[in-house]
Specification:
The chain has helices at about 5-20, 25-30, 45-55, 60-70, 75-80, 85-95, 100-120, 130-155, 165-175. It has nine helices and no strands. With about 180 residues, it is mainly alpha-helical. Residues about 1-10 have low confidence and may be disordered. The longest helix has 26 residues, at about 130-155.
Length: about 180
């Protein structure tokens, strides 16, 4: 085994230790909320998909890009990003309150379920008018979920968490 093969796990451990003892200004400078240990940069992953979904009905290129969008968890997003503090963001997430992480993960799962349902809808044989109506409703719902996730990341303890992801999708499709 070469030295380079060992640097990833060692660096990840160093980043976790660093996040656990990082002073608040250090986390803030990395755009990580020092109270929660979470970064709003994760929401960019969803905002991009929502923007593409919103434009998909009028722009064929956006439709194709939306269909190419792939869900990512918090760690995956930062591992694949060019975010300057990505290692610290992952480490801070891992040391964050587990209940807070669970709430954020549930919001992310709900957004992902809605986006995947919209992808299936776009590929379906439904009439264009019905697709456009559902797309508009989904965009409104998704923006609300992103707002809640942002509030949670920024320390709003009373942030409403939606029911199970499938229940949100079912409610949207019944409109």
């Amino acid at each position: 085994m070469k030295y380079q093969d060992c640097t990833g796990p060692a660096q990840a451990g160093d980043a976790r230790r660093e996040a656990a003892r990082a002073p608040a200004p250090y986390l803030s400078d990395a755009n990580i909320n020092p109270e929660t240990g979470l970064a709003t940069d994760y929401l960019n992953h969803f905002n991009e998909a929502i923007m593409l979904l919103d434009m998909a009905t009028s722009c064929p290129d956006c439709r194709a890009e939306f269909l190419d969008w792939q869900p990512m968890g918090y760690r995956e997003h930062f591992a694949a990003s060019r975010f300057a503090g990505r290692e610290l963001a992952i480490a801070a997430y891992e040391t964050a309150d587990p209940a807070l992480r669970e709430r954020l993960d549930r919001l992310a799962s709900t957004m992902t379920a809605l986006l995947e349902a919209m992808r299936a809808l776009m590929l379906s044989e439904w009439a264009s008018d019905a697709k456009d109506t559902l797309t508009a409703s989904a965009v409104v719902e998704l923006k609300s979920l992103v707002t809640r996730a942002g509030a949670l990341i920024n320390g709003a303890a009373d942030c409403e968490i939606p029911p199970a992801p499938q229940a949100v999708v079912d409610r949207l499709l019944k409109r």
